[in-house]
Amino acid sequence: MTSIRRIATPADAPRDALADLLVxxxxxxxxxxxxxxxxxxxxxxxxxxxxxxxxxGLVLWVAEEEVGGxxxxxxxxxxLKPNGRHRAEVQKLLVRPSARGHGLASRLMAxxxxxxxxxxxRLLVLDTEVGSLAEHVYGHLxxxxxxxxxxxxxxxxxxxxxxxxxxxxxxxxV
Length: 174
What we know:
Strands 1-2-3-4-5-7-6 form a 7-stranded mixed sheet. By secondary structure, it is α+β, with helices and mostly antiparallel strands. The protein has one domain (2-169): Gcn5-related N-acetyltransferase (GNAT) (Aminopeptidase). The chain is globular. It is built from 4 helices and 7 strands.
């Protein structure tokens, strides 16, 4: 059984499993800010930075299996500026390649969206590689694509690619 939990403090985090997940998805071709091959040390350093940033400006969830460890993760970065407290950015939706196709990304995003709505966030934004599997996921989940920016980032193998910008409006909390 896969469970999803919010990581509230650095002590709650499965650091080694998060580093392994990041290395695996980058090696599999996910364009999430890193070039391949990603060293385990660099992946661990990335997660150390994320974990020290947890709080009002960053929320993290992990999807775990008792036997299989961390299968996925997603982050929410609420805007802390006075004129933007109604919005947040979705970051680093990662799912282990062997766990894809079973609704895990949808479950992680549902957890994120429920938290955002409860916090009074009414607008979510994100960007992802044009033509990626992630675009299909976001479209399936009701997100709207607003356009793309050419040559925005490099794929893990170093080729420039466009990024697509997406948004989703959430109903006001009740």
